[in-house]
Amino acid sequence: MAVVVGAGLAMAGACMQTLVRNPLADPYLLGVSAGAGVGATFVIVIGAFSGLGIWALSFGALGGALLATALVFGISMWQGGITPLRLILTGVVMSAAFSSVSSFLVFFSADPRATQSVLFWLLGSLSGSVWQQILPSVIVVVLAIAILLALHSWLDALAAGADVAAGLGVPVRGLRIGLFVLTSVLVGVLVAVSGGIGFVGLVVPHLARIVVGALHRHVLPIAAVGGALFMLWVDVAARVVVRPQEIPLSVVTGLVGAPIFLLLLGRRHYTYSGGGE
């Protein structure tokens, strides 16, 4: 499961960095992960969608991710149009708001076991995943990879700027909305089985660009493979370092990912040429 989650989160991060033309973008920055977290927390604490059994958490996380996407795009459009800057600023605000909602639900939970489950889940863990969840996650990740690879030339154009992409015949607004929905579905499905895991979608795409350059037909598959290997290593480390206890995955990714990202910032500076659109 770690391989699937790592590949999907790395792909989502690479896509979002192109979507907003910002190398610091990832599912957390744009509020998608926080929205999925609210949906999952709602399921765990309130017991919503309990009739769906093991799929209740997936349904809640996916619904939260899509809600976050709708709000981010809706507010951005209401402010005057969809631009990378508006998407980032709106995403940051919505991420903070959704995180506050999750904290509110946990604080007022009357069930200590549910509170403990939510807190551990929000820090990231694959220990609760079951085999029935693996196949749907694999299908979603494979479909996302196939769709993004099919759109690699449009992604290259979008990375150069909205004006350049529009001049090349790319439907910029529709592409942005479609990419945001695709990554939201991808993140929602994966967050449901892994919880909140940071730095995978931020660091791995940078490493991929250093290795193979900026073209998306190369970046996307390398990011997927790199994310899978990184997440596999993180999961093993989380399980064996302090056995029999398990370290939350986000703790390991943060300890490893933060220094790597700082080194990358010092080694190479990524920019997306063009204006703010």
UniProtKB/TrEMBL annotation:
Location in the cell: Cell membrane
* Primary site of residence: membrane
Q: Which GO terms describe its cellular component?
A: plasma membrane
Q: Which domain of life is it from?
A: Bacteria
What Pfam families does its record include?
Answer: FecCD
Keyword Transport carried by entry: yes
Could you tell me the Gene Ontology terms of the biological process aspect for this record?
siderophore-iron import into cell
GO function term, MF aspect, one: transmembrane transporter activity
Tagged with keyword Cytoplasm = no
Question: What keywords is this UniProt entry annotated with?
Answer: Cell membrane, Membrane, Transmembrane, Transmembrane helix, Transport
Q: Where are the transmembrane segments?
A: 28-49, 55-75, 87-108, 138-155, 175-207, 219-241, 247-265
Q: How does it sit in the membrane?
A: Multi-pass membrane protein
Q: PANTHER family given for it? A: FERRIC ENTEROBACTIN TRANSPORT SYSTEM PERMEASE PROTEIN (PTHR30472), PERMEASE OF ABC TRANSPORTER-RELATED (PTHR30472:SF67)
Name the family the entry cites. Belongs to the binding-protein-dependent transport system permease family. FecCD subfamily.
Record protein name field: Iron ABC transporter permease
Taxonomy-wise, where does this protein's organism fall, top ranks first? Bacteria, Bacillati, Actinomycetota, Actinomycetes, Micrococcales
